[in-house]
Write a structure and sequence with these properties.
By secondary structure, the chain is mainly α. The chain has 28 helices and 9 strands.
């Protein structure tokens, strides 16, 4: 009887496993039958993720075991290639899950994230600590000069070897378990930090029942705020901390108390309370320090910068200090000018942080007679999309065709087929433009599937741009601000970097480049927005269809450098803050707020507001991969200004220049030295002069 029961139990168990497997779309990813193998989002349920993750980890480890247990002598073909292509199922699951965890999350996904994060950390540690795997990789590396490898293969091999040689595999037996524990701990800390920011952002609202409190705010924004309230079953105008609310209210609201309250809510997110990140910051930086000290490094930045263009903390500080000396004196002059302007308008106090955007916008209108609201009617979202897509066509011959047969993860997302100049399929492009409860703030590009070649076939990428732009309101379409259009161009630059990739291996394709190079293609695209030739292609009034006037274009250009020094000083403050945390050589036990203020002091322009600090919601460095890397925005800005100066010289649509940028920057990924790639395009080393000229900053300014 016992044997029969056991047999029956086994049969039922196997039947349940087979049924679960059959219904889980991830287990059938090779045969989805969707256009271009895109994700069948309509079939994917939350309960599918965890089993697929666990099976993906299992398969990935088995694939590593196959490499390690191969009795043949190590070769590039039997060691390096299977290593970089291992864990395919895991990648398929992770690319879907983590994209949705950022763009369309919910409580259940966040719980899964907490469960799976330590498992993924352990998976990563198991591979990086595998001594037998490293022995085979090293054997291939030592014979690299005799293998007739392509340039891409050689660079990839050298990078893989370098990662292992300077990684955990060479730690002592005593240190290896400590490393595993610290890596798992750091993963959980970073995840909790990010979830806290999203929850704190969504948690704060303020209902206004008197319209007089919003004097100065445009009718369109007030309609949006009224719609926010209506969706919650309330009457009035509901403020929240999303950028579509925060930015226009801070710019235009005449009521200083409202601006102050909104500012304080935004800049005290995760300081104390239910979603406190203060202690998490300490734990994150101390855990990072503990990890790198296992490798006998003095600080986190010393290890993390090793494979960047900057390479050393000295080079990072050299750039930051150069820009500080050139820009901060001008930024402080901008502040003094604004203070005097505010006083002329009857303001009798010292300008505070919640006054800057408001009076800055008023002075801008007085100086240049132009505001965001003047430009909005010309930036209707559908026209902007057409303009951005046409720009890609002018530069690289790309066309975008919406395909409703491609499933999407939310009804607001659009999917496009992208074709090259010869009509060949190039990529799938997803666009996701508007804020939602389940979407984190900001804007980004990501891969659902990166580009690579397999068995002689070029497997083309699927990329997504996620933004938080103004929605359509009542009878008006979505009308974007100038800065929102600029953000679209920025993220679309990242998307082009992913879509135009022409590499053999996924690990080096597309945006898999160092942090201080990855922002070049994105920031480069922003330059087009002040160019008449580009604006003329799409900027038409949404009601009259009149093209944007020459007068407005002239005002855009005239105002282009307005408060550029302040904007730079603000970015530098984030860079110095990042470096301050990640050049610590001893565990931090002090006051997080005081530390942050001290790090930013040398580039301070506005008075410090007590008990506020943006770092408790600074996801870039505490959960977003930019630790000891935030400087890269300014590093890349030097590159993008220098690169665009060649387009200005030759014509912004010059085919030869665009081809050179595409071939040497956008197609290469990390398949060759990035400095070499840039010099092939530009013909020389980049310099700071083009950036300073663009920003209207004189050399040697003090």
């Amino acid at each position: 009887m016992t044997n029969r029961i056991n047999t029956l139990f086994l049969f039922v168990f196997l039947f349940c496993v087979m049924t679960m497997t059959a219904k889980n779309p991830f287990f059938n990813y090779k045969n989805w039958g969707t256009p271009y193998g895109t994700y069948p989002f309509d079939e994917i349920e939350n309960e599918h993720y965890l089993p697929a993750f666990e099976e993906g980890i299992k398969q990935g480890l088995l694939e590593i075991d196959e490499i390690v247990n191969n009795t043949d002598s190590p070769t590039f073909e039997n060691t390096i290639e299977p290593y970089v292509t291992s864990g395919k199922l895991l990648s398929v699951v992770a690319n879907c899950f983590f994209n949705l965890a950022s763009a369309e999350t919910n409580d259940e996904l966040q719980k899964i994230e907490l469960v799976i994060t330590p498992k993924l950390s352990e998976y990563s540690s198991s591979i990086s600590l595998n001594e037998k795997l490293f022995a085979r990789i090293k054997a291939v590396y030592l014979q690299r000069n005799n293998l007739s490898l392509s340039g891409e293969q050689l660079r990839m091999l050298e990078d893989i070897y370098d990662d292992f040689a300077n990684g955990a595999v060479n730690l002592s037996a005593e240190k290896k378990p400590i490393y595993r524990e610290l890596k798992a701990k750091l993963s959980n800390l970073s995840l909790t930090y990010e979830q806290n920011v999203l929850k704190a952002t969504n948690a704060w609202t303020k209902l206004l029942t008197e319209e007089s409190l919003l004097v100065g705010v445009s009718e369109d924004v007030k309609k949006m705020l009224a719609s926010n309230a209506e969706k919650k079953g309330l009457k009035g105008w509901l403020l929240d901390l999303k950028p579509t609310t925060y930015i226009p209210v801070m710019q235009y609201c005449e009521n200083r108390d409202i601006r102050r309250e909104l500012y304080m809510a935004y800049n005290t997110r995760c300081i104390g309370g239910e979603f406190d990140n203060i202690n998490l910051i300490k734990e994150i930086v101390n855990t990072r320090l503990a990890i790198v000290q296992l490798f006998d490094k003095m600080c986190y930045a010393e290890k993390s910068l090793r494979k960047t263009m900057a390479k050393t903390t000295e080079n990072v500080y050299n750039l930051l200090d150069q820009l500080r000396d050139a820009y901060v004196p001008v930024a402080r002059e901008e502040y003094e000018e604004l203070q005097q302007f505010a006083e002329k308008k009857g303001f009798s106090e010292t300008l505070q942080a919640w006054d800057w955007s408001f009076y800055s916008e008023k002075l801008k209108q007085e100086k240049y007679a132009i505001s965001e609201d003047d430009l909005r009617p010309y930036f209707e979202l559908e026209n902007v999309k057409k303009g951005v897509f046409d720009l890609a066509n002018h530069l690289y011959g790309l066309t975008f065709v919406k395909n409703k047969d491609i499933q999407v993860y939310h009804e607001e997302v659009d999917a496009y087929e992208v074709f090259d100049s010869e009509g060949k399929f190039l990529a799938v492009y997803y666009s996701d433009f508007h804020p939602r409860e389940g979407k984190r703030g900001g804007a980004w590009m990501s891969d659902f599937k990166p580009q690579y070649r397999e068995n002689g076939k070029d497997s083309r990428p699927h990329v997504v741009n996620v933004m938080n732009f103004t929605r359509a309101i009542d009878d008006k379409p979505a009308l974007l601000t100038y800065s929102e259009v600029e953000t679209f161009l920025h993220e679309f630059g990242h998307a082009l970097h992913g879509m135009l990739s022409r590499c053999q291996y996924e690990v080096v394709s597309g945006t898999n480049v160092s942090r201080d190079f990855v922002e070049l293609p994105s920031q480069f695209m922003e330059n087009f927005l002040s160019e008449k030739e580009f604006l003329d292609t799409f900027a038409k009034h949404y009601e009259t269809q009149e093209p944007i006037s020459q007068d407005l274009i002239d005002k855009i250009r005239q105002s282009q450098n307005y408060h550029a020094a302040y904007a730079c000083a603000r970015q530098l403050s984030f860079g110095y803050l990042d470096m301050a945390w990640h050049t610590l050589q001893q565990p931090f036990e002090g006051d997080v707020i005081e530390f942050g203020n001290a790090a930013m002091e040398q580039v301070k322009v506005l008075p410090v507001v007590p008990n506020t600090q943006m770092q408790t919601a600074f996801t870039h460095i505490f959960s977003g991969g930019y630790a000891a890397g935030y400087y890269s925005y300014k590093w890349s800005e030097v590159l993008d200004a220098d690169a665009f100066s060649l387009f200005k010289q030759n014509g912004i649509y010059d085919k030869k220049t665009a081809d050179a940028f595409r071939v040497n920057i956008l197609e290469k990924g990390n398949s060759e030295d990035l400095s070499v790639s840039y010099k092939k395009f530009r013909g020389k080393e980049p310099s700071i002069e083009a950036l300073m000229e663009r920003d209207g900053i004189k050399l040697g300014n003090k």
